[in-house]
Amino acid sequence: MNNKGAKGSDTLRRITGHHLFLPIVFLAVVLLANVIKTPDFFEVSYSNGILYGYVVDVVNRASELVILAIGMTFVTAASGGQDISVGAVMAVSAAVCCQILSGGEVSITAFQNPLLLAVAAALLVSMLCGAFNGLLVARLNIQPMVATLILFTAGRGIAQLITRGQITYIRVEEYKLYGSYIPGCPIPTPIFFAAGTVILVMLVLKFTALGLYVESVGINSSAARIVGLNATRIKFITYVICGLLAGLAGFVASSRIYSADANNIGLNLEMDAILAVALGGNLLSGGKFSLMGSVIGAYTIQALTTTLYAMMISSDQLPVYKAIVVILIVVLQSPVFQQKFRDLRAKLRQNTAASRKEGAAS
Amino acid sequence: MKKLLSVLLAMTMALSFAACSGSAANSSAAAPANSTAGKAAGGDSGDMTVVGFSQVGAESDWRTANTASMKETFTEANGYKLIFDDAQQKQENQITAIRNFIQQEVDYIVLAPVTETGWDTVLKEAKDAGIPVIIVDRMIDVSDDSLFTCWVGSDFRKEGDTAVKWMQDNLKDKKELHIVHLQGTIGSSAQIGRTEGLEAGVKANPGWKLVAQQTGEFTQAKGQEVMESLLKQNDKIDVVYCENDNMAFGAIDAIEAAGKKAGKGGDITVISFDSTKAGLEATLKGKINYNVECNPLHGPRVESIIKELKAGKTPQKLAYVDETAFDANTITQAVIDARAY
User: Fold this and answer.
1) Closest by Cβ to B229, choosing from A47, A263, A306
2) Among the four residues A19, A71, A333, B176, which has the most C-beta atoms within 10 Å?
3) Within an 8 Å CB–CB cutoff, is residue A183 touching chain B?
C-alpha cells in the first residue's frame, strides 16, 4: 500500500492522500501506545502448540467485529444508513444454533442434531432477519435506523424465546473448536473465519460488479435506477448479506463460550461495527466505500480494548476511554478539520516564506 | 424469482412479527390474563392467597432455580395463586408488573429487583394499597425502610469470608499468594459483598497480594477475555477469585489456553461462587478448587414469612438463607445429582 517507489514530497503526498492512510496511522498509534506501558506487547511466543501474546489476542478477539464490519460497510454504502440490529441478530443466530444442537436440553455433552444442520439453520434465520430489514428499508423506504430498530429491540427477546430464557450449554469439544483452537493449529480458529470472510468478499468485489452497483446506488439511487440498476434489489441484497455475516459472527461468539447467552452475545457490538466503518474513513451517508478501511477500523477498536485491559483499566470504564479516543479520531478525520488543517499549513508556509523574504531583504 | 422472493419476504415478516408479539406477550400480556384467573380464584374460594412475583429474568441457571423454587412453593395445592412476571432484565418492566399487582389487589408482592435504586415511588404505591412487599435476592436502596416488609437473600459478605477462610486453611504453606480477582458487575450486591470479603482477607494476611482486580461482569465471555489479558501481565498467579461460576468457566478456559493447569493440583487455584450444577460439575472434575454456594431456593423462606405475616407477627427485617460450600476434595457425584439447578 505504501508506495515507496517514487521520491520526495510526491511520494509523501501520495501516501498521506491514500484513503487508508489515516485508518492505518490510527491503528499504528493505538498499538505503539502500548509499548510505553507494556514493553512486551508485541511479543508473540509459541507455547503448548499455540501462538500466545497480546497481538494474537487483538486479532483473535476482533474476528466477530471484522465480520460484522464488512456487512455494515455494504449496508452503509448502499442505503446510507446503518443496521443496528446486528448484535441482536448474533444472539438469535447463537440461540438457533445451540437450541438445535441441544435438542431442547439446557446443557448437553453430545450433539443431538448434526452441527451442519444447526449452523445452516442459524445462518438461514440470520439471513431472514436481514431480509426483513432489507424489505423495510429497500421496499418500504423506511429509514435504516428506524427499520432495524425493530429487530434491535425484539431480537434479544426472540433469542430468549428460542432458548426459553435459559443459557443453553453445548459442552462438546467439537463445538468449542470454532471459538478456540483446532488441535495442531497454532492460530485461533476465529481468525480463520474473519480472514476467510474478508478474502471471499474481496474476491466477490473483484470478480463481480457488486461493489460498483452498491456504490452507484449509494451515491444516487434514482440515477442508478435510470441507468438500469435495480436499486431496491441491491439495497435488499446488502441487508441480507449483513444479516448472514451477523449470523456467522454469532456462531463464532457462541462457540467461544460454547453456549447461547441471549442477553450478552453481541451486546453493544452493533455500535462498535458502525464505529469500525466510520474509523475506516467511510462516509456514514453512503456511496463510495473501502472494505479494508472498515476491517482496519475493526482491528483498531479491538486493539484499543486490549490495550486498556493491558493498562489495567477496569472494563466497566472502558467505554469512557473508547469514547475519548473515538472523538479524537473522528474529529481528525472530519472534512472541516482537515480543511482547517490545510489552511493552517498553507498560512504557515506563507509566513515562513514571507519572513524568509524579509530576512533576505534586510 | 421475484415472486419467490416476495413470498419469502412475506414469510419472514410474518414470522418476525409473530416472534415479536410472542416475546411481548410473555412479559406483559401474561399478567392481565393471569389477573382474571387470580380474581376468579379469589372470588369463588376466598381462601387462596394471591402472590405476585416479579422476577429479574432468566439470565442464569441460578435465576431459573430461584424461579422454580417460588413456583414449587406457591402452588394451588398449597393454597396459593402465584402471578409470575419475567422482567427480562428491565426495571421498567418490574415497575409495570408491581403496578399491575397492585391493580389486581394481590395479597403479597415478592420482588427480585434488577437494580438497587429507583424503587421509592412504586413501593410507596404498594404501601398505600396496603400490600406487604418481600424483597428477595438483591437488596434495594430506598429512603424509607418501611417501604418493604422484609428481605430474603444471601449474605454475600459471609460468602466472601467463607472463601477467604478456606484459602487461609488450605493455602497456608505458600508464603506469598498472588491473587487475581475477577469481579462481578460493579455495584451489584453479590459483587460488593464478595469483594469486601476478599479485600478484608488480603488486609488480614500479610503474605497475600492482590495483583489484579478487574470486572468480568458475571459473564463467561468477559471473564475469559479479562483473564486472558491478566495472564499475560502477571507471570505468577496463584489464585483466581471469580465472583461467579460463569466467569470461572471463562477464566479456566483462558488458563488452559495459556498452557497452565487450573484447579486441583494445578498451577492456579480457582475459587468460585454460586455453586450451580455446572459449577459443581467443574468442582467435581477438580477444575474449581472451592465453590461457595449462593442458595437460590428462596421459596420456603418466603412462604414462612408470609405465614408469619398472616398470623399477625412481625418477621425479621433481614432473613438470610442457609448456605454451604463445596471443596473439590470432598464433593461427590451424589451432591450434584441432588441439585436441581
Assistant:
1) A306
2) A71
3) no
Cβ within 8 Å, pair B12-A128: yes
* Cα separation values, A89 from A2, A84, A132, B264, Å: 37, 10, 11, 39
Is A200 among the domain residues?
Answer: yes
* Distance separating alpha carbons of residues A114 and A105, to the nearest angstrom: 15
Question: Which domain covers residue A142, as residue numbers?
Answer: 19-312
* Residue A238: CATH number of its domain: 1.10.3470
Please give the C-alpha separations between residue A306 and each of A190, A236, B257, in angstroms, as whole numbers: 17, 35, 17
The CA distance from A167 to the nearest CA of chain B, in Å, is: 6
For residue A53, is it within any domain? yes
pTM of the predicted model, to two decimals? Answer: 0.82
ipTM attached to this prediction: 0.84
Q: Which of A92, A261, A318 to mutate to test the interface with B (most CBs of B within 10 A)?
A: A261
Looking at the domain assignment, is residue A12 inside a domain? Answer: no
Which stretches of chain A score pLDDT less than 50? 1-6
Whose cell is 492482590? That residue is B210
Is the CB of A257 less than 8 angstroms away from the CB of B216?
Answer: no
CB-side neighbour CA atoms (13 Å) of A347: 6
Tell me which residue of A315, A334, A338, A335 sits closest to A326, measured CA to CA: A334
pLDDT over 90 (residue B61): no
Q: What's the domain count of chain A?
A: 1
Domains in chain B (CATH in brackets) are 25-38+45-153+296-310 (3.40.50.2300), 156-294+326-337 (3.40.50.2300)
Mean pLDDT of chain A: 90
In this complex, is the C-beta atom of B7 within 8 Å of any C-beta atom belonging to chain A?
Answer: no
List pLDDT tens digits, range A305-352.
Answer: 888 888 888 777 888 887 887 788 778 878 888 888 889 988 888 888
Q: Name the residue facing A158 among B19, B216, B224 (closest C-beta).
A: B19
